Amino acid sequence: MRIFRPLNGFFARLPKIKPFGTTTSNTSLPAVRALWGQSFDQLPGRLLAAQRHNFSTMPEILDSQADLDLYTPHPRVRGMTTLDRAAFTKEVVVPALSVKKDILHKVAKTIKGVLLQRPGLKRVVEDPGDKGKRLILLDPRQIPADYSLGEAEQEVLKSFDVSPEVLKYNLELTYDNFKVEEVLQAVLPEGQEVTTAFSRIGHIAHLNLRDHQLPYRHLIGQVIIDKNPGLTCAVNKTNIIDSAYRNFKMEVVAGEEGSMITKVKEHYITYEFDFSKVYWNPRLCTEHSRIVDLLKPGDFLFDVFAGVGPFAVPAAKKKCVVFANDLNPDSHHWLQHNCKLNKVGGKVRLFNMDGRDFLEGPVKEALTQQLASKDRKHALHIVMNLPAMAVEFLDVFRHLLDGEPGGTDLPTVHCYSFSKHDEPSRDVQERAEARLGTSLEGRCSVDLVRNVAPHKEMMRISFRIPAEVLYKEQPSHAGVQEPASKRLRPSEEPPEQTEKEPV
């Protein structure tokens, strides 16, 4: 650091100069940099000041904008629609300590609370003024404006015989050093909502962008791929989910366009499918587990809208008897594939039918057989995960079975539904009651599954099908008269009774 000593007196007499703001320059260097000449430009990182007197009396005052510079890309990226990574390169000033190499790690460990914390940035760099030392970079948010350290840090440095003098280091930031939200907040118009959330389906990022974000969709998709290792493709939904096949049209906005076939894991079970042709939502992971946890080995599960098997496959792994159906032929194909993939191919009965036909056919037949058994010990569960319209299928259960109720342990239905009502629980219950033709008050539970959108909730109503709903009414024998041919006419006398001879 000897090269700085002749300049100490000169800099002490300079007026206090603030760094340039990010709105006027692509650097945060103070204006005084111009006085230092080009000799500093050859250094890998440049020290702006290196005074060896007591650090607490340094004349430079750190502007609050310098703190923001570390977390804000250059303003020239505003409005960018095609990603230009080089445009994010900028220089900022950060505080630093000069420490001998042999005690470097010990010092860094004891003052870790004030170390620089940025993705992809080294916190230890070469000291251009002394080859036997290194510079430890500090977080400007943790250092006061006068570049002074707290008493605790001073004591630590004193114990290691390290000068408490805080230096200013000129640091280069690149695109790699900024987080997703920082990049997008810098690019999108000011004041507009920035959404960084997405669903991860294997190597695919599924976005659901709002209208004001669509002009930037290719950039947003590429940034999300760049910042999330393992992602190679980003897609954006272009229409609502089809109510019949439960899939939607999508646009590839960044990355590979070749294959939508992906692989995911959920609760240690592997699923493979073509995401462009079937429905999969990782946000339902907890709900899948919640229902499967209700099941015991030997229980029956009737999955009316099975998709690629997130209820059916784990239930089969749990040694339940599973009937799984889906109308979408692609879902049926991947459901069959996932059963084989998880070695439960022979334990699941698969169907490719309309949900109503499935309930009135295979489900009715199985329920009739099971409810007629007097020694049945296993529970019966029916899952109806088609929230856009599953409630409309509940009328199938009205008088579905013949005969008398075979016991109190009737099938339990788990039916999913969307609701935009102010009271979604009441809304879903009332709609279910209307389809069943009976009250479920005190006989059901309605739970929130997830928030789908503002003022739109996904709910689940669970109830045991009432016997008066499930079974047909039996004709009553009370007050039934005999046929006319068996009744006496008013003018007729009853026949004489004769004694029977003993046999």
UniProtKB/TrEMBL annotation:
Main location group: mitochondrion
Record keyword Oxidoreductase present: no
Protein name in the entry: tRNA (guanine(37)-N1)-methyltransferase
Keyword Nucleotide-binding: no
Localisation: Mitochondrion matrix; Nucleus; Cytoplasm
EC number from the UniProt entry: 2.1.1.228
Assembly: Monomer.
Residue span, SAM-dependent methyltransferase TRM5/TYW2-type domain: 198-467
Entry keyword set: Cytoplasm, Methyltransferase, Mitochondrion, Nucleus, S-adenosyl-L-methionine, Transferase, tRNA processing
Residues the entry annotates as binding S-adenosyl-L-methionine: 288, 326-327, 354-355, 385
